[in-house]
């Protein structure tokens, strides 16, 4: 049973995403799994000013809408990711300025690991998905496939998707994704990335911190 407090928390997190400039107007969408159900921003809603009457409650396994509010047209990959990955409770599709500029580049960067935060939080490999119409089954399938074993992906001529366990993890992932793309754009393409040995050294450092 979804509580009013959980809906309010979801709305606060949506506004946080908007306040950070990760979405504008009706761009982007966000979801949160709570047990067998998920809250999803409604179709046509503005994430930065999401209201209670624009929050859709869906059954994760079937996609059935439980409260009469139509979910985002991208709910197919939101719920699909949750079905494929029990470790994921939050999915964010955003269109931040620099990351979206990169998504529209003719010459796509082959490597986004410009700082240590990228392999540590975003992912040392970020899948790039070809353009498909927003809301299409093809896009949903490609996003689900890409995030089956990654936490972030870039959608050509569209935007980005990140997922994770909680709101803070997903917000951090999106912000560092945008930071990396800002560095790439502002450098004019003249930038260095961490090499494989440096990335592996970071992985060992993180592992030792957890032990």
From TrEMBL:
| InterPro entries in the cross-refs | Aldolase_class_II_sugar_metab, Aldolase_II/adducin_N, Aldolase_II/adducin_N_sf
Q: Which UniProt keywords apply?
A: Lyase, Metal-binding
Listed name of the protein:
Class II aldolase/adducin family protein
Looking at the record, the residues that make up the Class II aldolase/adducin N-terminal domain are: 8-185
What is the superkingdom listed in this entry's lineage?
Answer: Bacteria
The cross-references to Pfam families, in alphabetical order and at most eight, read: Aldolase_II
